[in-house]
Every structure is written in C-alpha cells, then in structure tokens.
Design goal:
Blueprint (H helix, E strand, L loop, with lengths): L2 H7 L7 E10 L2 E10 L2 H12 L6 H6 L2 E6 L1 H7 L8 E6 L2 E6 L3
Parallel strand pairs: 3-5
Antiparallel strand pairs: 1-2, 1-3, 4-5
Length: 105
Amino acid sequence: MTKSDFLAKYDNKKPYGWVCYAVQLCPPMIYTIVLAIGMTKEEAEANAVKKYGESIHCEGANRMMPIEYSQITEAAYRKLKTAKTLDKFHTVTYEGVSVRAYDED
C-alpha cells in the first residue's frame, strides 16, 4: 500500500485516539518515544502502565523523560501501532484542537 493509498483510507485530520509518549531532552535534540496508544487518554495511560509498569509515573524518571499525552488522527493511530518514535508525525489543528497527524512527506 502506498502512502497516498494509506492516507486515502484513513482520516489524517480529525482527532481519533490518544498517544502516551515520553520526551527525552538531550540538548540540542529532543526525542519522543511512543509508550502506548488508546482510544481515550485514560486507555493510553493504562496501556503504557501495563507495558512499562507504574515506573512511568516515577518522579525521578519524569524529570529525565517527562510523560506527555496528545490526541492523534486515525492515520496516526494506525501508524503508531508499529512506530517507536513520533519523529514521522506533525501537528495539525482541527477546530481548535491540536492533533498529531501522520507525516505526508
């Protein structure tokens, strides 16, 4: 399936699900590591805890790699099932809501 076929099949604009991810600050670089996805923010968090344990909420770990949550499009949701980072995603605004979308480039 080509990228254009994929994007024709899945919506890449409207909010659809959520991603829970960790942000690693290594100046001048910033890495984002996908922890889990879910249809709701709570489900994404629960999936991350199920996969990595309660340590994702550890204060020390959160100083080094803060946990973030973001709404994602359907296309991004499908791609994030296999993605390890958010490097191939960009942010779009849909009706005032900031959403992570799959990068079309």
